[in-house]
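Dear H.,

Thanks for agreeing to be a second pair of eyes. The structure we're designing against is below in token form, covering all 321 positions.
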């Protein structure tokens, strides 16, 4: 790394609790669920519900889930994001490569302030959400706009069909299947979103479809060998369909006894992949007589780091053009 690089790449992920405890989960969810990009309800309705019902009830319940996936060095989302940034840094020693979280630590504002103090002038911001959504990517853009004063900030909004990223995901599926065998069906499971937001124009579902189609094409999969679903529903309103649990139930009812599940909406493994898919959905499918095999996220794989570094380089080249 040069003494003081003037270019930085900032990888931003969602954020995660500092500990698998009810207190830490309440603090994290409290910040997350106050974001107007995530929950649009008027505050006088939402705040009482959040502070007196959701956080007290959800804190201990979700802490128990985190406890089951917690790693020695911390929450999987934090550990893998940190490692991914280190691998990208090793590929691009001429930049400063750092990471931040939209909610919790390290905060975007603190990291940008540190970069400014180090003499960085240009920052490529890469939210680790391959598929653009107003609830995630735009929320990162809001936080960066607020804290990035004086810096030349360039956002990467979406890489849902970026060829190097698509190839990295396809290769990881190929390698996983070579090691563990090929299930009869491949399910692409993405984090969900309220249907209302898609109806209002959030392009997220189309971006998920584009990713799944591109990865299936790279794998040469026939149309009946794969499907797409949404998971991680929160709250009572209608979310994007079909739900992962329902798709798996249908597959089991049709006699499909082995399914591989991959989650290309998640850059790194986290609660939603390790607990919800690899544990809960796998147990549900097993009750119906099937075997669900979970294919891990790209995490800190070199192919992932290379794809992200190339995206950032292209974003910088666009600035020079
Ligand atoms: C209205 C609520 C939510 C929206 C909208 C939403 C969108 C959304 N989220 C991700 C990625 C992740 N979400 C994660 C956890 C998580 N998500 C919500 C709610 C909404 N997400 C909650 C309440 C939680 C916490 C867990 C729980 O209480 O059930 C995570 C994992 C975090 C971790 O620590 O491991 C990720 C990643 C995307 C991509 C997205 C919209 C497209
Ligand atoms: Fe509040
Ligand atoms: Fe979420």
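And this is the sequence the design step returned. I haven't edited it by hand at all.
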């Amino acid at each position: 790394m040069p003494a003081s690089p003037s270019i930085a790449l900032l990888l931003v992920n969602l954020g995660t609790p500092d500990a698998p405890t009810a207190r830490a989960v309440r603090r994290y969810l409290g910040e997350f669920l106050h974001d107007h990009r995530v929950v649009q309800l008027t505050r006088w309705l939402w705040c009482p519900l959040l502070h007196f019902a959701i956080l007290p009830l959800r804190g201990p319940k979700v802490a128990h889930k985190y406890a089951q996936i917690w790693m020695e060095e911390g929450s999987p989302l934090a550990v893998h994001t940190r490692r991914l940034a280190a691998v990208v840094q090793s590929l691009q020693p001429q930049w400063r490569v750092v990471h931040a979280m939209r909610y919790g630590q390290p905060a975007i504002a603190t990291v940008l302030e540190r970069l400014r103090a180090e003499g960085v002038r240009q920052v490529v911001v890469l939210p680790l959400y391959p598929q653009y959504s107003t609830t995630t990517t735009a929320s990162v853009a809001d936080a960066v706009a607020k804290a990035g004063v004086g810096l030349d900030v360039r956002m990467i909004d979406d890489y849902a069909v970026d060829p190097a990223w698509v190839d990295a995901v396809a290769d990881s599926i190929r390698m996983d299947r070579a090691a563990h065998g090929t299930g009869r069906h491949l399910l692409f499971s993405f984090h969900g979103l309220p249907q209302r937001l898609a109806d209002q124009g959030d392009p997220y579902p189309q971006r998920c479809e584009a990713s799944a189609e591109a990865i299936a094409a790279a794998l040469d999969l026939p149309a009946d060998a794969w499907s797409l679903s949404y998971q991680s529903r929160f709250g009572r309103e209608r979310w994007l369909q079909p739900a992962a649990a329902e798709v798996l139930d249908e597959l089991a009812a049709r006699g499909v006894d082995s399914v591989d599940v991959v989650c290309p909406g998640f850059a790194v493994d986290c609660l939603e992949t390790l607990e919800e898919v690899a544990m809960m959905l796998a147990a549900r499918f097993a009750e119906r007589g099937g075997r669900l095999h979970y294919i891990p996220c790209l995490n800190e794989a070199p192919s992932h780091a290379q794809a992200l570094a190339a995206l950032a380089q292209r974003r910088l080249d666009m600035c020079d053009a």
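Two observations from my side: The first helix runs from residue 22 to 32. The chain has eleven helices and eight strands.

Warmly,
E.
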